[in-house]
C-alpha cells in the first residue's frame, strides 16, 4: 500500500478482500486497517466512503473506540447514507453522546 503512487482499484479490491478474511477470522482491528487502506487506494469515491464507514464500525465492534474516534473527521463530511449514519452513531456512542447516538442510529 505504501508503494502505491495514487489510486489503484486492483490494490484497493485486494485490501478489501483481505479485510473480509480478517473479519471472518474475528480480527476486527486488522479488517478495519485493511478497509482504511482500501478506501485510501480506491478511485471510486462512493466505494471509498463505504469502506471508511465500515472501518469505523469494525473498530468500535473490535473494542478500539479511541481509534474509531480518530476517524471521525474522515467520515464526517461524507454524503449521508445509512452506512455513514451507522458509523456516526457508533462514534457518538463511543464518545458517550448517547442521545446523539440514538438519533443517528435511527436515521
Describe the structure.
The protein is mainly alpha-helical and 107 residues long. Helices cover 75% and strands 0% of the residues. It is built from 7 helices and no strands. The protein has helices spanning 9-24, 28-41, 45-61, 65-70, 72-76, 82-94, 98-106. α2 (28-41) packs antiparallel against α3 (45-61) and α6 (82-94) runs antiparallel to α7.
The structural class is mainly alpha
Q: Order of helices and strands, N to C? A: HHHHHHH
Low-pLDDT stretches: none
As a percent range, the share of helical residues equals over 70%
Largest sheet: none
What's the β-strand tally?
A: 0
Global geometry? globular
Please give the count of helices.
7
Strand content: under 5%
Mean pLDDT: 92
- Give Rg in angstroms: 13 Å
Kindly report how far apart the N and C termini lie: 34 Å
Short descriptors:
75% helix; 107 residues; single chain; mainly alpha
Amino acid at each position: 500500500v505504501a508503494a502505491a503512487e495514487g489510486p489503484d482499484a486492483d490494490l484497493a479490491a485486494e485490501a478489501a478482500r483481505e479485510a473480509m478474511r480478517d473479519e471472518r477470522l474475528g480480527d476486527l482491528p486488522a479488517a478495519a486497517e485493511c478497509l482504511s487502506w482500501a478506501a485510501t487506494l480506491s478511485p471510486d469515491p462512493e466505494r471509498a466512503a463505504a469502506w471508511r464507514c465500515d472501518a469505523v464500525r469494525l473498530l468500535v465492534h473490535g473494542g478500539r473506540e479511541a481509534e474509531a474516534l480518530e476517524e471521525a473527521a474522515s467520515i464526517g463530511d461524507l454524503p449521508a447514507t445509512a452506512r455513514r449514519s451507522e458509523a456516526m452513531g457508533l462514534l457518538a456512542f463511543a464518545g458517550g453522546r448517547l442521545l446523539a447516538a440514538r438519533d443517528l442510529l435511527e436515521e
